[in-house]
Here is the input.
Amino acid sequence: MKKSSIIIFLMLILSINMFAQRTNHQVGMMVGAKFIKKNDAIAPSFGVNYEYKFAKTKPVLGVGMIADLTIHDNMELTGGLAMFVHPTSNLRLFLAPGILYVNYGLAPDDPNLTYLQVKNDYGSQIRINMMAGAEYQFKLNSFYLSPFLKFELIENNYRAFLGIGATYKI
Here is the structure.
């Protein structure tokens, strides 16, 4: 089910580009690994981004969103509204304040656990974070392939996300 949804989404993006005129919209997907300092863990991460570019500004500016899903001991979803800057035609920098949502899973059915233990150890949490990153876009036919690096700061914890992305201009 998930694989077919992804295939349909990619086919939709490709078909839109075949008939669309040149616009300032970009959508992208990324895959990579995220280093989480708090746990000293490296986990797989998958993400998406969207940007609307204001083409008449120098340097070129854009606004949009960026989000990623990281799966290790628990599921983490990071997302935020992004401000993009393009100092050159291929380099894209961004700064994005946002949130981190962590789901710690279901609590065991143990009557000895207090409510606070269940809430702290097995509940969900939402935290404010700040993301910043850079990517360099290489043009291939109708899309861009781009290695990227993203840093996240959450309270006194940081994370680094290194990966590769594909951006498609529609």
Observations:
- The first strand starts at residue 25 and ends at 36.
- The radius of gyration is 18 Å.
- The chain is about 15% helix and 60% strand.
- The beta strands are 25-36, 41-54, 60-71, 75-86, 91-103, 124-136, 138-140, 143-154, 157-169.
